[in-house]
What we know:
11-stranded mixed sheet; 9 helices; alpha+beta; 2 domains; globular; 5-stranded mixed sheet; Fumarylacetoacetate hydrolase, domain 2
Amino acid sequence: MAPTRRTLLKTAGVAAVAGKLLASGETKAQGTQTVQGGSSPRGLTYCNLRSGVGVKLGDRILDVGRAAQQLHVPVPATTDEVVAGKNADGLRKVVQAAPKNATVAESEAQFGPCITNPEKIIMLGFNYKKHVMEVKVPMPTAPVLFNKYNNSLLAHRGTIRLPIKVAKKFDYEVELQVIMGKTARDVSEEEALNYVFGYATGNDFSARDLQLRDGRQGSQFMIGKTPDGFMPIGPYLVGAELVGDPQKLAIECSVNGERRQSSNTSDMIFSVAKIIAYASSIFTLKPGDVFSTGTPEGVILGKPEAEQVWLKAGDKVACRVEKLGELAFQLA
Protein backbone atom coordinates (compact mmCIF):
# COMPACT_ATOMS: atom_id res chain seq x y z
CA MET A 1 0.00 0.00 0.00
CA ALA A 2 1.35 3.46 -0.90
CA PRO A 3 2.20 5.57 2.18
CA THR A 4 -0.16 8.35 3.19
CA ARG A 5 1.05 11.75 4.34
CA ARG A 6 0.48 10.62 7.96
CA THR A 7 2.62 7.53 7.38
CA LEU A 8 5.41 9.53 5.76
CA LEU A 9 5.53 11.92 8.68
CA LYS A 10 5.36 9.22 11.32
CA THR A 11 7.92 6.84 9.85
CA ALA A 12 10.38 9.22 8.23
CA GLY A 13 9.91 12.23 10.49
CA VAL A 14 8.95 15.79 9.68
CA ALA A 15 11.61 18.43 10.38
CA ALA A 16 11.28 22.08 9.67
CA VAL A 17 14.18 24.32 9.12
CA ALA A 18 13.87 28.05 8.88
CA GLY A 19 16.26 30.93 8.46
CA LYS A 20 15.20 34.35 9.58
CA LEU A 21 12.16 36.07 8.14
CA LEU A 22 12.90 38.52 5.37
CA ALA A 23 10.89 41.61 4.56
CA SER A 24 8.98 41.33 1.31
CA GLY A 25 6.45 43.32 -0.63
CA GLU A 26 5.11 40.18 -2.33
CA THR A 27 1.44 40.30 -3.20
CA LYS A 28 -0.85 37.76 -1.52
CA ALA A 29 -1.81 34.89 -3.78
CA GLN A 30 -3.47 31.54 -3.49
CA GLY A 31 -1.17 29.11 -1.70
CA THR A 32 1.33 31.69 -0.40
CA GLN A 33 0.05 34.28 2.06
CA THR A 34 2.12 37.15 3.39
CA VAL A 35 2.92 36.67 7.06
CA GLN A 36 1.63 39.41 9.38
CA GLY A 37 4.08 42.25 9.68
CA GLY A 38 5.22 42.19 6.04
CA SER A 39 7.56 39.19 6.27
CA SER A 40 7.36 36.40 3.73
CA PRO A 41 7.38 32.63 4.29
CA ARG A 42 9.58 32.44 1.17
CA GLY A 43 12.39 33.83 3.35
CA LEU A 44 12.54 30.73 5.57
CA THR A 45 14.20 27.33 5.32
CA TYR A 46 11.89 24.48 6.32
CA CYS A 47 11.95 20.75 6.84
CA ASN A 48 9.70 18.10 8.30
CA LEU A 49 10.59 16.42 11.61
CA ARG A 50 8.88 13.54 13.37
CA SER A 51 7.13 16.10 15.58
CA GLY A 52 6.15 18.54 12.83
CA VAL A 53 7.54 21.54 10.99
CA GLY A 54 10.99 22.84 11.90
CA VAL A 55 12.98 26.00 11.16
CA LYS A 56 16.76 25.97 10.79
CA LEU A 57 18.57 28.36 13.10
CA GLY A 58 22.28 27.94 12.55
CA ASP A 59 23.22 24.37 13.44
CA ARG A 60 19.97 23.83 15.35
CA ILE A 61 16.39 23.31 14.24
CA LEU A 62 13.47 25.02 15.92
CA ASP A 63 10.69 22.50 16.58
CA VAL A 64 7.77 24.72 15.59
CA GLY A 65 5.12 22.51 17.18
CA ARG A 66 6.91 22.34 20.54
CA ALA A 67 7.46 26.09 20.55
CA ALA A 68 3.81 26.66 19.64
CA GLN A 69 2.69 24.72 22.73
CA GLN A 70 4.68 27.10 24.90
CA LEU A 71 3.33 30.20 23.15
CA HIS A 72 -0.23 28.88 22.76
CA VAL A 73 -0.51 29.76 19.08
CA PRO A 74 -1.64 27.63 16.10
CA VAL A 75 1.10 26.74 13.61
CA PRO A 76 1.38 24.67 10.40
CA ALA A 77 1.72 20.94 11.04
CA THR A 78 3.68 20.19 7.85
CA THR A 79 5.53 22.04 5.15
CA ASP A 80 2.53 21.36 2.91
CA GLU A 81 0.50 23.59 5.26
CA VAL A 82 3.28 26.18 5.25
CA VAL A 83 3.11 26.35 1.46
CA ALA A 84 -0.69 26.59 1.65
CA GLY A 85 -0.36 29.59 3.99
CA LYS A 86 -2.07 27.93 6.96
CA ASN A 87 -1.46 29.54 10.38
CA ALA A 88 1.19 31.87 8.94
CA ASP A 89 0.88 34.39 11.79
CA GLY A 90 1.51 31.69 14.38
CA LEU A 91 4.56 30.55 12.47
CA ARG A 92 5.93 34.10 12.44
CA LYS A 93 5.44 34.48 16.20
CA VAL A 94 7.14 31.19 16.95
CA VAL A 95 10.14 31.96 14.75
CA GLN A 96 10.53 35.41 16.27
CA ALA A 97 10.41 34.00 19.81
CA ALA A 98 12.55 30.90 18.97
CA PRO A 99 12.62 29.45 22.51
CA LYS A 100 15.94 27.66 22.93
CA ASN A 101 14.36 24.72 24.78
CA ALA A 102 12.30 24.00 21.64
CA THR A 103 15.31 23.37 19.40
CA VAL A 104 17.17 20.22 18.40
CA ALA A 105 20.67 19.81 17.03
CA GLU A 106 20.67 19.41 13.26
CA SER A 107 22.84 16.31 13.61
CA GLU A 108 20.20 14.66 15.83
CA ALA A 109 17.12 15.64 13.82
CA GLN A 110 14.90 12.89 12.41
CA PHE A 111 13.85 14.13 9.01
CA GLY A 112 10.93 13.39 6.76
CA PRO A 113 10.64 14.32 3.07
CA CYS A 114 10.68 18.13 2.89
CA ILE A 115 7.29 18.03 1.14
CA THR A 116 4.87 15.17 1.79
CA ASN A 117 1.68 15.57 -0.21
CA PRO A 118 2.23 17.21 -3.61
CA GLU A 119 -0.63 16.87 -6.05
CA LYS A 120 1.91 16.48 -8.86
CA ILE A 121 5.54 15.37 -9.01
CA ILE A 122 6.71 16.45 -12.45
CA MET A 123 10.03 15.18 -13.74
CA LEU A 124 12.30 16.51 -16.48
CA GLY A 125 14.25 14.23 -18.78
CA PHE A 126 17.33 15.25 -20.77
CA ASN A 127 17.57 18.82 -19.43
CA TYR A 128 21.35 19.27 -19.15
CA LYS A 129 23.38 19.70 -22.32
CA LYS A 130 26.30 17.52 -21.24
CA HIS A 131 23.97 14.79 -19.99
CA VAL A 132 22.19 14.69 -23.36
CA MET A 133 25.57 14.29 -25.01
CA GLU A 134 26.71 11.47 -22.70
CA VAL A 135 23.57 9.37 -23.24
CA LYS A 136 23.62 10.13 -26.98
CA VAL A 137 20.04 11.30 -27.53
CA PRO A 138 18.86 14.23 -29.68
CA MET A 139 18.86 17.64 -28.02
CA PRO A 140 15.21 18.25 -27.00
CA THR A 141 13.32 21.18 -28.49
CA ALA A 142 10.73 21.26 -25.66
CA PRO A 143 10.85 20.08 -22.02
CA VAL A 144 10.56 16.29 -21.69
CA LEU A 145 8.03 15.74 -18.90
CA PHE A 146 7.07 12.59 -17.03
CA ASN A 147 5.82 11.82 -13.52
CA LYS A 148 6.50 10.20 -10.19
CA TYR A 149 4.06 9.61 -7.34
CA ASN A 150 4.02 10.21 -3.59
CA ASN A 151 4.96 6.59 -2.85
CA SER A 152 8.44 7.42 -4.15
CA LEU A 153 9.12 10.18 -1.58
CA LEU A 154 11.99 9.43 0.81
CA ALA A 155 13.61 11.42 3.63
CA HIS A 156 17.17 12.55 4.21
CA ARG A 157 19.06 9.66 5.85
CA GLY A 158 16.42 7.25 4.55
CA THR A 159 16.93 3.84 2.96
CA ILE A 160 15.81 2.71 -0.49
CA ARG A 161 14.82 -0.97 -0.50
CA LEU A 162 15.97 -2.03 -3.94
CA PRO A 163 13.29 -3.97 -5.89
CA ILE A 164 15.75 -6.66 -6.95
CA LYS A 165 13.00 -9.07 -8.02
CA VAL A 166 12.19 -6.84 -10.99
CA ALA A 167 15.36 -4.80 -11.61
CA LYS A 168 19.16 -4.94 -11.32
CA LYS A 169 20.53 -1.75 -12.92
CA PHE A 170 20.16 1.03 -10.34
CA ASP A 171 21.43 4.55 -11.00
CA TYR A 172 21.62 7.96 -9.27
CA GLU A 173 20.48 11.35 -10.64
CA VAL A 174 21.00 14.42 -8.46
CA GLU A 175 18.45 17.12 -9.34
CA LEU A 176 17.28 20.58 -8.30
CA GLN A 177 13.73 20.41 -6.95
CA VAL A 178 11.30 23.31 -7.41
CA ILE A 179 8.25 23.57 -5.11
CA MET A 180 5.39 25.71 -6.35
CA GLY A 181 3.82 28.29 -4.03
CA LYS A 182 0.89 29.61 -6.06
CA THR A 183 -1.70 28.28 -8.44
CA ALA A 184 -0.32 28.87 -11.94
CA ARG A 185 -2.00 28.66 -15.34
CA ASP A 186 -0.61 30.26 -18.49
CA VAL A 187 2.06 32.22 -16.64
CA SER A 188 4.78 33.96 -18.60
CA GLU A 189 8.44 33.06 -18.37
CA GLU A 190 9.10 36.55 -16.95
CA GLU A 191 6.64 36.00 -14.07
CA ALA A 192 7.22 32.28 -13.50
CA LEU A 193 9.71 32.47 -10.62
CA ASN A 194 7.26 34.57 -8.61
CA TYR A 195 5.12 31.41 -8.38
CA VAL A 196 7.91 29.36 -6.77
CA PHE A 197 7.76 28.83 -3.00
CA GLY A 198 11.20 27.31 -2.65
CA TYR A 199 13.80 24.78 -3.70
CA ALA A 200 15.28 21.51 -2.44
CA THR A 201 17.93 18.91 -3.20
CA GLY A 202 16.60 15.68 -4.69
CA ASN A 203 17.53 12.49 -6.52
CA ASP A 204 15.66 10.94 -9.42
CA PHE A 205 16.71 7.42 -8.48
CA SER A 206 16.28 5.05 -11.42
CA ALA A 207 16.08 1.39 -12.38
CA ARG A 208 17.53 1.58 -15.88
CA ASP A 209 16.51 -1.93 -16.96
CA LEU A 210 12.87 -1.03 -16.24
CA GLN A 211 13.24 2.38 -17.89
CA LEU A 212 14.66 0.76 -21.04
CA ARG A 213 12.46 -2.32 -20.94
CA ASP A 214 11.43 -2.13 -24.61
CA GLY A 215 14.88 -1.05 -25.78
CA ARG A 216 14.20 2.65 -26.34
CA GLN A 217 15.80 5.44 -24.29
CA GLY A 218 13.32 6.68 -21.70
CA SER A 219 10.26 4.97 -23.14
CA GLN A 220 9.34 3.49 -19.75
CA PHE A 221 10.27 6.46 -17.55
CA MET A 222 7.43 5.97 -15.09
CA ILE A 223 8.04 2.34 -14.13
CA GLY A 224 11.80 2.85 -14.08
CA LYS A 225 11.60 5.74 -11.66
CA THR A 226 8.56 5.30 -9.42
CA PRO A 227 9.22 2.27 -7.18
CA ASP A 228 8.87 3.02 -3.46
CA GLY A 229 11.48 5.44 -2.15
CA PHE A 230 12.86 6.40 -5.56
CA MET A 231 12.40 10.15 -4.89
CA PRO A 232 14.62 11.22 -1.97
CA ILE A 233 14.03 14.93 -1.32
CA GLY A 234 15.31 17.33 1.31
CA PRO A 235 16.32 17.65 4.01
CA TYR A 236 15.32 21.27 3.54
CA LEU A 237 12.77 23.25 1.63
CA VAL A 238 14.61 26.55 1.21
CA GLY A 239 12.51 29.63 0.55
CA ALA A 240 12.99 31.21 -2.88
CA GLU A 241 14.12 34.52 -1.39
CA LEU A 242 17.15 32.81 0.13
CA VAL A 243 18.15 31.13 -3.13
CA GLY A 244 17.92 33.88 -5.72
CA ASP A 245 18.72 32.84 -9.28
CA PRO A 246 18.15 29.06 -9.62
CA GLN A 247 20.31 28.97 -12.76
CA LYS A 248 23.55 29.65 -10.88
CA LEU A 249 23.76 26.72 -8.45
CA ALA A 250 26.52 24.13 -8.18
CA ILE A 251 25.15 20.58 -8.16
CA GLU A 252 26.91 17.28 -7.41
CA CYS A 253 26.46 13.67 -6.34
CA SER A 254 28.81 11.17 -4.70
CA VAL A 255 28.64 7.41 -4.10
CA ASN A 256 30.50 5.93 -1.12
CA GLY A 257 32.48 9.17 -0.90
CA GLU A 258 33.50 9.20 -4.59
CA ARG A 259 32.22 12.18 -6.56
CA ARG A 260 30.29 11.04 -9.63
CA GLN A 261 28.43 14.18 -10.80
CA SER A 262 29.64 17.78 -10.64
CA SER A 263 28.01 20.53 -12.67
CA ASN A 264 26.01 23.74 -12.45
CA THR A 265 22.34 24.50 -13.14
CA SER A 266 23.57 26.96 -15.77
CA ASP A 267 23.96 23.89 -18.04
CA MET A 268 20.18 23.35 -18.10
CA ILE A 269 18.63 23.39 -21.55
CA PHE A 270 15.32 24.72 -20.19
CA SER A 271 15.52 27.07 -17.21
CA VAL A 272 13.22 26.79 -14.20
CA ALA A 273 11.24 29.76 -15.51
CA LYS A 274 10.85 28.16 -18.96
CA ILE A 275 9.77 24.85 -17.44
CA ILE A 276 7.05 26.49 -15.33
CA ALA A 277 5.79 28.64 -18.20
CA TYR A 278 5.69 25.63 -20.54
CA ALA A 279 3.94 23.28 -18.11
CA SER A 280 1.42 25.92 -17.01
CA SER A 281 0.42 26.43 -20.64
CA ILE A 282 -0.75 22.80 -20.69
CA PHE A 283 -2.21 22.22 -17.20
CA THR A 284 -2.78 24.02 -13.90
CA LEU A 285 0.01 23.92 -11.34
CA LYS A 286 -0.95 23.88 -7.66
CA PRO A 287 0.81 25.01 -4.45
CA GLY A 288 3.08 22.19 -3.32
CA ASP A 289 3.55 20.71 -6.80
CA VAL A 290 7.14 19.62 -7.38
CA PHE A 291 9.32 19.93 -10.46
CA SER A 292 12.47 17.79 -10.56
CA THR A 293 14.47 19.64 -13.16
CA GLY A 294 16.76 17.02 -14.69
CA THR A 295 20.22 15.64 -13.93
CA PRO A 296 23.68 16.67 -15.13
CA GLU A 297 26.30 14.43 -16.69
CA GLY A 298 28.04 11.65 -14.79
CA VAL A 299 25.29 9.01 -14.43
CA ILE A 300 26.16 5.33 -14.75
CA LEU A 301 23.96 5.02 -17.85
CA GLY A 302 26.21 7.52 -19.63
CA LYS A 303 29.35 5.39 -19.25
CA PRO A 304 30.53 2.82 -21.82
CA GLU A 305 28.78 -0.49 -21.17
CA ALA A 306 32.00 -2.15 -20.00
CA GLU A 307 32.39 0.50 -17.29
CA GLN A 308 28.82 0.44 -15.98
CA VAL A 309 28.93 -0.70 -12.35
CA TRP A 310 25.38 -0.38 -11.06
CA LEU A 311 24.44 0.63 -7.52
CA LYS A 312 23.87 -2.16 -4.99
CA ALA A 313 22.69 -2.76 -1.45
CA GLY A 314 25.03 -1.12 1.05
CA ASP A 315 25.95 1.82 -1.18
CA LYS A 316 25.64 5.32 0.27
CA VAL A 317 24.64 8.26 -1.92
CA ALA A 318 25.06 11.95 -1.09
CA CYS A 319 23.61 14.80 -3.19
CA ARG A 320 24.30 18.51 -2.88
CA VAL A 321 22.80 21.58 -4.50
CA GLU A 322 24.34 24.93 -3.62
CA LYS A 323 22.43 26.81 -0.87
CA LEU A 324 20.08 23.84 -0.32
CA GLY A 325 22.10 21.43 1.81
CA GLU A 326 23.14 17.80 1.50
CA LEU A 327 20.70 14.96 0.94
CA ALA A 328 22.04 11.54 1.95
CA PHE A 329 20.50 8.10 1.69
CA GLN A 330 21.57 4.46 1.57
CA LEU A 331 20.54 1.35 -0.32
CA ALA A 332 19.41 -2.01 1.03
